[in-house]
Amino acid sequence: MVLSKAVPSSSHDASLDCTFASRYVRAPLPRFKLPEESIPKEAAYQVINDELMLDGNPRLNLASFVTTWMEPECDKLIMAALNKNYVDMDEYPITTELQNRCVNMIAHLFNAPIGEEETAVGVGTVGSSEAIMLAGLAFKRKWQNKRKAEGMPYDKPNIVTGANVQVCWEKFARYFEVELKEVKLKEGYYVMDPEKAVAMVDENTICVAAILGSTLTGEFEDVKKLNELLTEKNKETGWDVPIHVDAASGGFIAPFLYKDLVWDFRLPLVKSINVSGHKYGLVYAGVGWVVWRSKEDLPDELVFHINYLGADQPTFTLNFSKGSSQIIAQYYQFIRLGFEGYKNIIENCMENAKVLRQGLEQTGKFNIVSKEVGVPLVAFALKDRTYYTVFDISENLRRFGWIVPAYTMPADAQHIAVLRVVVREDFSRSLAERLVSDIHKVVQELDEQVKHVTKVVTTQVDITARGGGTDGALVHKSEQEIAEEVITYWKKLVSRKKTSGVC
Amino acid sequence: MPENTIPKEAAYQIINDELMLDGNPRLNLASFVTTWMEPECDKLMMAAINKNYVDMDEYPVTTELQNRCVNMIAHLFNAPLGESEAAVGVGTVGSSEAIMLAGLAFKRRWQNKRKAEGKPYDKPNIVTGANVQVCWEKFARYFEVELKEVNLREGYYVMDPEKAVELVDENTICVAAILGSTLNGEFEDVKLLNDLLIKKNSETGWDVPIHVDAASGGFIAPFLYPELEWDFRLPLVKSINVSGHKYGLVYAGIGWVIWRSKEDLPEELIFHINYLGTEQPTFTLNFSKGSSQVIAQYYQLIRLGFEGYKNVMENCQENAMVLKEGLERTGRFTIVSKDNGIPLVAFSLKDHSRHDEFELSHHLRQFGWIVPAYTMPADAQHITVLRVVIREDFSRGLAERLVLDIEKVLRELDALPPNGKSMKRSADVANCHAALANGHVAKKLETDKKTNAIC
């Protein structure tokens, strides 16, 4: 007689499952409602990691100015600081000190009129958007206070910029109820014209914003000329209109490559400057800086004084809690690279941009729209737009892994469409050469397709022509009619898209 | 900026060493903000550190993850949506940005309404309690809205709904209630506010809405107090913000704001960006930012699920009780926080004659603990509290150790002569009581104002 019974194991120990055998990869991922149950951390990690594989590769994203590579030593520092809430200034005094040091260094880099050991007026932000909003707020409040003191109306403030301005200025204008007066561009002149800008200034203008490193073509606007013309206008009218320089990209390029270019606090009307730490400051996304000329340019009523267990720290930011990693990373870059390091890196970028530019010119198919002096990027347009556009090239480049966006210029140059490649620190020469060869391939493919389509359509037209109309007579089309039909057919084949405005 | 380059190892070491002198984030009991996540999540965050969130066309999956989080949080808050309907909301850098966006929406809606009625729209105001966090004051100052604060009183440290509704007038763009007051973790009575405000609206013909600042409470109430009606179940609640980096259990740098429906977010505030054909509406103050925290939030939502969050919050609540009971046993403290609310313990000394809470806080630092002391805002500035926030990573062992260390500090202070400052404070307290009794509104007690605003 059997004394013992074998009990079949009915429970399945799910913790033994290897990741892709578990039930978690069979279930659809929750999209709308918080799931009822927990899942193991390995499964959570794997499913999210796998979905994210379908995101673009940040380093091949040639659309963006924002840094996509940092040294592993810096990654270590970033990881260690992930759980530090920057705003706890009293708990993390060193981190706060590092921010202050960065502000001082940047202010000195921009020739702020401060003594050797004097602390600068400025702050770290999450990006240039926040920086610009803070600077704009300061201008708005100063202007309002002045108008109130003069007994004049202060309900219609405006700001003068070029139409090439980045979207964050439009946001500032709309959210803070300031009118945006834009100087229109024209074909061949894709930045703000200082003369036209000054002509638009009136008594309600809180400031004129110039861009050092236009988003679309990388060009530097002539801040010196703007300063001169505006000084003259101020004298004539008795107004006191200041300048803000949006140096989001150019602020970490001009001081290293173009030392003699006078664009910063050396010009008396420049009262504040913003720069993105996460562009050519060479830090990952999430840090920007705004620096004011002096204490007088930042109305004290905008500054909140927080006393944490006795230490008084003035703060003036839109965001409160945020991570500390990027601030620490910015300081790392400053002391690791120093002036010579930044200079070397930017020079490399310029060299690689030149390689790219020359490669494109050699194809004979492109007009280079960007200038050689400015942010290291290459913006180029097709010479012949009859059969395909830059949007088609952009789409086809994706197959090779490259993300190269195409844009139309803003008013009044909307008929110009360009491709833009931003050359970042990690865009090496070999990548530049590979990109040129891939663009070559794409253009050749598109040319082949055009020939093929032309043949097909022409054949069809011939057949139709030979088959005749309703009365059986032969209908011959002229060459021009054939060409037009080819173009119409081709245009239908390819969809046109309009875009503008990226950081 | 130094002239010369230095080796990367040197740069790393120098900075690492300086930072050793920062406080230890996990012993920082002042903050609600998450200080520990699972290593698997750390891996995901590090991998995403070079992704600029705003490049929506380049990183469509990351954008999709944000949208899923918005949907889940909206459903958690009982937004009136269909099963597969996309919610109206956005991820932000924190509750500050979230509140500014919500406030902007209210301001614009009110302005449009007043313009249509032909009435003046230049003096908008917002009604809140004096216990409100500093970001509301920032919103008011930067966006030129008047802040009408309902003052507190001793024993009642949140906004009184009746007083709030009294302060409402035709220029009020919204009434902001807090679910999880910064100072003592209490939940304000949003339901009562809703009922009273409905009445006032029907009497006056106005249409004043409610915003709930659920920065801390938004990830607690649905799990611990599901019967508590505070969210979109109340008809006047039009938007809610919550901090992903507090009880959403993600590192600093993420918040969420949800609107009831499309109508509550004026279209003119939304920017439409067309990147290579895909249209994505955006309404945030920040543009470029990291993607790590959004991905981490999604990780937490699917990793923990409803039961996981519930377990974590229940643990926090348990540990808060352990701490509270330990403090009560010393016989030296009054507990100012309530049992229901955010898992935190706010307590003050029964006897102020020899030493005060600031000294206690100072001495606790020697043991490594960061436990801040604050004075309450008007009209209860004479009350000082110490506050310990119980986060996910504050285990029972740590709670018991904290109690032991507080007892040690009390013994140390007892052995010391009385602090001259605290004697003055007792006199000031007496004067303040007298002033209040005379009906004067007490102004700030000292020029070195101790803060009440921390997140």
Automatic annotation (TrEMBL), chain A:
Reactions that this protein is recorded to catalyse: L-glutamate + H(+) = 4-aminobutanoate + CO2
Entry superkingdom: Eukaryota
Gene Ontology terms describing biological process: L-glutamate catabolic process
EC number: 4.1.1.15
Entry GO terms, CC: cytosol
InterPro entries xrefs: Glutamate_decarboxylase (IPR010107), PyrdxlP-dep_de-COase (IPR002129), PyrdxlP-dep_Trfase (IPR015424), PyrdxlP-dep_Trfase_major (IPR015421)
PTM sites of type N6-(pyridoxal phosphate)lysine: K279
Keyword Transport on entry: no
Regions annotated as coiled coil: none
CDD domains: DOPA_deC_like
Cofactors: pyridoxal 5'-phosphate
Keywords: Decarboxylase, Lyase, Pyridoxal phosphate
GO molecular function (one): glutamate decarboxylase activity
A family per Pfam: Pyridoxal_deC
NCBIfam families named in the record: Glu-decarb-GAD (TIGR01788)
Family statement drawn from the similarity comment of this UniProt entry: Belongs to the group II decarboxylase family.
PANTHER family named in the record: GLUTAMATE DECARBOXYLASE
Protein name per the record: Glutamate decarboxylase
Organism: Rhynchospora pubera
TrEMBL record, chain B:
Alphabetical list of Gene3D superfamilies matching this protein: 3.90.1150.160, 4.10.280.50, Type I PLP-dependent aspartate aminotransferase-like (Major domain)
The UniProt record lists the keyword Lyase: yes
Modified residues (N6-(pyridoxal phosphate)lysine): K246
GO molecular function: glutamate decarboxylase activity; pyridoxal phosphate binding
Cofactor: pyridoxal 5'-phosphate
Keyword flag Lyase: yes
Catalytic activity: L-glutamate + H(+) = 4-aminobutanoate + CO2
Record GO biological process: L-glutamate catabolic process
Listed EC numbers: 4.1.1.15
Family from the record: Belongs to the group II decarboxylase family.
Protein name: Glutamate decarboxylase
